[in-house]
Structure formats: C-alpha cells, structure tokens
Design goal:
There is one protein chain. By secondary structure, the protein is α+β, with helices and mostly antiparallel strands. The mean pLDDT is 84. It starts with a helix and ends in a 10-residue tail after the last strand. The radius of gyration is 29 Å and the shape is globular. The relative contact order is 0.11. The strands form six sheets. The chain has a five-stranded mixed β-sheet, with no helix packed on it. Strands 3-2-1-25 form a four-stranded antiparallel β-sheet, with no helix packed on it. It has four helices and 25 strands.
Length: 379
C-alpha cells in the first residue's frame, strides 16, 4: 500500500512538473513572439486611427516606414480642408459654422450682415443682398472685408460670381425669366458703376427660377434650369446658348412632390456634375460628357467628395478616408453632431435612414463656405 501511494505521489509530482514546464515554455514563446513584433504588425484599423491624427508632414514621413504604413498613411492623408456649413440666423447677429470633418461648431458675431440674404459663395467670399436697400456686396466673414457693388434689384433669382472679388477678372452673373423664350442676363464686376442687362432669345425651352443652379467652369457660367436644360453664358463674348443636351434621365418616382428642390450642381476639374435626390431613394449623380453632349450616370466619384447646398456646391479631393467618395448635404442632425451624407462605396445614407425631403428646408438657411486658413481664432 505504501509503495503504491509513493508511486501515485511521484506520478502526480511528475505531471505537475510537466505542466509547469509546458506553461513556462508557452509563456516564454509568447514573450519571445511579443518581443519580436514590430510597429508594422499593428492592426490596420489601429494604425489608421493613429496616422489620421498626424499633420500632413508627419503623415508623409510615416508613409516611408514600410509598405503597410505607406498604404495606411495614404488612405487617411488629408491635403485639403473640407468646406464649413455656415448658418444664417433668423434673429440676431450670431452665425454658426459647422466643420463636418471634425464635427465641431464655431460661432462668429457678424453685425455687418444684418438684414442681408446670402446669394452665393466661392473662394471664401459671400455674395449678399439687402432687399430693403437693393445693396449687393461681397463679404469675407473671417477677415470682415467688404467689397461693394452698385445697387441692383434682385428678385428671387439666382446669382453667382466667377472668382474672389479681389481679382480683376471677377464677374457677377444673374439670369432672370422674362418669357418662355426670353431671359434677361445681368452682369457686373467690382469697381463698376452700374449693372449691364441684356435680353437673350432661347432656341430651346429654358425656365429660369430661384431653383435653378449656377456654376462657373472653364471660363463660362453654366445654368441648370428647373426642367434640366443647361444654359451657357460666355462673359467675354457676352453670348448665351441653351445646349442641345437632353436633361438627365431619372426614374419616374424622382419627380414627386418638391422634386425640383432636391437638385444640386457642382464642378470639378472642368467637369459639370449634377446631383438628383428624392426622399428615400438613393441620389443619382450625373456628369456632362461634353464631347458627346450627353449626361453620364456616375457610380463612383473616384475618391472625390461633394458638398451640396441650394445656392452653391463644392468639390474636394484628399479629405479623410471616411469622407471620400461621398456627398455631404447641407443638413446636420443629432443636435449638430452629424452631417447627412451619402456614401457611393456603401450605397447608403449616413446616419442610417437619414435621407431628407429638401422641400422642407429654407434655401437661404445655410451655405457651404471655404474655412479660414488660420483656425487659431476658433480654438
């Protein structure tokens, strides 16, 4: 009996020793494995999270570390700033600016804008109109600089300008409906003493209204009519022409209530882009094929980001990875925390089920604008 007990004790002690040896070996192996791991072994999601917080200069430096870091650094590299969404209050002089990239809101008191209505933005400048006095003027909300234009009565018609008013090539353009076959086009420039207005005949149907869209591209003003026809004005030759390009083809359910309010137009590197939206349906983006004079539906923006608002829309490249290949609309939800966007990669709106009826929004409520280069005043 004693011998048997001694044998059992020896066997148990041997097992314990074996288990301890195995555990020690496993621990040592894990330790060795951890010691041999390098920064290049970080999970790609964690790596992107770290790299997206670096400056552009540090991002470029990190990209030469190894192949994985290069891929991650390029995917989150930010070269451009996204536009900010500027809100025009119904009362008071406090204006809010929403940054969709940082999801932050900044405020500025701008009494200079009291009683004015926004018309257009470009290159960080606002074009505004005071209905009571017919005063038209440019305003930079960040430098507080003002450039006045001659007085002009702007009824509810669309207006645009070609570049910053500090440039000697700046032209202001507006088109007004006179009859089904005639439009009145008025132009002006900083330093002028009056506006020049000329009536033009339309060879094709063109209805001008506040819901039309204007962009300046390749030296021309392109104007998208209520029904989808495209008019082109050459400010140098002072010619007007409605292109023989049939309007973009959309499904019948797009032409529902307030369908004309859900259209947006932008330009990018010489291309004219049009966005059609309709309540719960996914938006459709068209690009004008200028050589063949037809609209082509776009399934991807190739990494570009569009910022759409009623009065003017913008395009950007080299934004944070999550913002690319998307359209950001001029509506913020969740108490100012999330901008409604549509991802062409995922074919869905963000936040989930946050499509919007644009017929409910005041077109003069907000507009996208270039942010200031120096953000120190807002920090």
């Amino acid at each position: 009996m004693v011998c048997r007990k001694r044998r059992k004790v020896k066997l148990l002690s041997a097992r314990v020793v074996d288990d301890k040896t195995t555990t020690t070996t496993t621990t040592k192996n894990k330790k060795v494995k951890l010691e041999t791991q390098t920064w290049s072994d970080l999970p790609i999601e964690l790596l992107e999270l770290i790299l997206c917080r670096l400056s552009l200069e540090d991002n470029i430096r990190s990209s030469v570390a190894c192949k994985r870091w290069n891929t991650a650094a390029i995917s989150v590299r930010v070269v451009n700033q996204s536009p900010w969404l500027m809100y025009f209050p119904k009362f008071g002089n406090m204006y809010e600016f929403y940054d969709p990239a940082q999801r932050k809101t900044y405020s500025l008191e701008l009494p200079e804008l009291y009683g004015s209505r926004v018309c257009y933005t470009r290159d960080g400048w606002l074009l505004l109109y005071r209905p009571r006095t017919n005063r038209v003027f440019f305003f930079d909300p960040f430098s507080q600089e003002v450039v006045k234009l001659p007085r002009f009565e702007l009824t509810y018609q669309i207006v645009a300008f070609s570049c910053a008013p500090t440039s000697n090539t700046c032209v202001v353009f507006t088109v007004r409906h006179v009859s089904p076959t005639i439009v009145a086009i008025s132009t002006c420039h900083p330093g002028a003493t009056e506006w020049v207005t000329v009536n033009y005949q339309n060879r094709l149907p063109f209805v001008s209204s506040i819901w039309n869209k204007i962009v300046f591209c390749n030296g021309f003003f392109y104007c998208l009519s209520l029904t989808g026809w495209l008019g082109v004005f050459d400010p140098l030759e002072r010619t007007w022409n409605v292109l023989a390009v049939p309007p973009p083809k959309c499904p019948e359910n797009f032409f529902a209530k307030n369908w004309w309010k859900g259209k947006f137009m932008s330009e990018h590197n010489g291309d004219i882009l049009v966005i059609y939206t309709c309540c719960s349906e996914n938006p459709i983006i068209f690009k004008l094929d200028q050589p063949k004079m037809v609209w082509r539906e776009m399934k991807t923006l190739d990494g570009m980001t569009l910022f759409a608002s009623f009065l003017s829309s913008h395009s950007r490249t080299d934004l944070p990875g999550m913002m690319r290949n998307s359209v950001y609309f001029s509506k913020v939800r969740f108490f100012g925390k999330r901008c409604i966007s549509y991802s062409l990669n995922d074919c869905r709106y963000y936040p989930c089920k946050q499509c919007y009826d644009w017929g409910e929004q005041d077109p003069f409520e907000n507009i996208w604008i270039e942010p200031p280069e120096d953000l120190s005043a807002f920090i």
